[in-house]
């Protein structure tokens, strides 16, 4: 069950840590654009990046979809700061649930990008 945002608020719904499922995380990270977003967030060292800081070769609506999939699967947390939607990895939650998974996937993506 996803934690719902209060009616009329700008808070976005996120799954509670215990609701994050491995198959949802793997599905979210199976898309190249979503993996690219996660790699950029990981490179930010735990910091927050606004949606506008990502230069993806897709439409704005497709970008919004990718962020929603990542948020709903529990991979990222999104919060509003003023008018900007900020994004950060839920690395601690993911490492607690699936130790080493995120690091292994990011390392594999880095290796793959160097070979391409």
TrEMBL record:
Q: Supply the InterPro entries for this chain.
A: ArsR-like_HTH (IPR011991), HTH_ArsR_DNA-bd_dom (IPR001845), HTH_MetalResp_TranReg (IPR051081), WH-like_DNA-bd_sf (IPR036388), WH_DNA-bd_sf (IPR036390)
List UniProt keywords, sorted A-Z: DNA-binding, Transcription, Transcription regulation
- Family matches, as CDD domains: HTH_ARSR
According to the lineage, what is the superkingdom?
Bacteria
Q: What is this protein called?
A: Helix-turn-helix domain-containing protein
Organism whose genome encodes this protein: Streptomyces fragilis
Quote the Pfam families the UniProt record gives: HTH_20
**Which residues does the UniProt record annotate as the domain HTH arsR-type?**
14-109
